[in-house]
Specification:
260 residues, five-stranded parallel β-sheet, two-stranded antiparallel ribbon, 45% helix
Length: 260
């Protein structure tokens, strides 16, 4: 297969597969990009990735994959974060969220972090990403559903919530406690089902479509401007990755709690 993509709650493999024919893997953890690169695909896409309770995907393994001639794309979630951090080294970021991190509009990792269910339920999201809440509130403001003042207050409330607790119901209750007019909150509640935005999902689709076009057009192996350094820590990391179990070498999907 010419492409491997790491995804989870942002977009399901079934939905993603309608945009790009690829091998779809669960959210990336430490060592997963290295193991995918060993399969020698032409491209790797990173959307979702684990963190906190599970070691997250290393910058070094992405650099190694690109040094092996593999094009690495990132968007939407931890893929957008890594792409912004590794832009100077040639990782290709796609989408609005990547651009916000690249331009310094966003800095905090928790902007894309959510809680989710296990693989058995398709990594179903159990909270809402702050970036999606921001976009939704701004759309509501532009649509005259809420005022600028209310949007600002609600953004602040959402940002103060611990990211696994972020959801619209809690936001609405907290907004009422903060004194936002009930008429605005009622309009917002009624507008939400059709009005809310999923910027992470949109960015993921944008990346998949770009990868599809690039693969169809054909591109040369990735070239990089850096010399990859085989440090002692890297030697230890890749040996551990090569020896550990993974969805790339068996069918058991890992059950982890948090993703971004």
């Amino acid at each position: 297969m010419s492409a491997y993509v790491f995804t989870g709650p942002t977009i399901s493999p079934a939905e993603a597969g309608r945009e790009l024919d690829a091998v779809y893997l669960p959210p990336a953890a430490e060592g997963d990009v290295y193991r995918a690169a060993l399969k020698r695909p032409r491209a790797i896409g990173i959307i979702d990735g684990y963190f906190q309770s599970t070691p997250t995907v290393r910058h070094k393994e992405i650099l190694w994959a690109m040094s092996q001639g593999i094009h690495v794309f990132g968007s939407a979630s931890i893929g957008a974060l890594r792409a912004a951090e590794l832009l100077a080294f040639g990782m290709e970021g796609v989408g609005t969220i990547f651009e916000w991190y690249r331009d310094g509009v966003l800095e905090d990792d928790d902007e894309v972090a959510i809680a989710h269910g296990p693989a058995e339920v398709g990594f179903r999201a159990a909270s809402e990403a702050m970036v999606n809440i921001r976009h939704t509130l701004r759309k509501a403001e532009l649509s005259d559903i809420i005022s600028t003042k209310s949007r600002t207050i609600m953004e602040g409330i959402a940002k103060k919530l611990f990211y696994p607790d972020r959801n619209y119901e809690l936001l609405l209750r907290s907004a009422a406690d903060a004194g936002i007019p009930e008429t605005e909150l009622t309009r917002f509640r009624q507008w939400l089902p059709k009005g809310q935005l999923n910027q992470k999902g949109e960015d993921a689709v944008t990346m998949l479509r770009l990868m599809r076009r690039r693969l169809a057009q054909g591109f040369d192996p990735k070239t990089v401007s850096y010399s990859f350094q085989h440090t002692v820590m890297w030697e230890s990391a890749w040996r551990e990755a090569a020896n550990s179990s993974s969805t790339l070498c068996n069918d058991e999907l890992r059950d982890r709690a948090l993703v971004r």
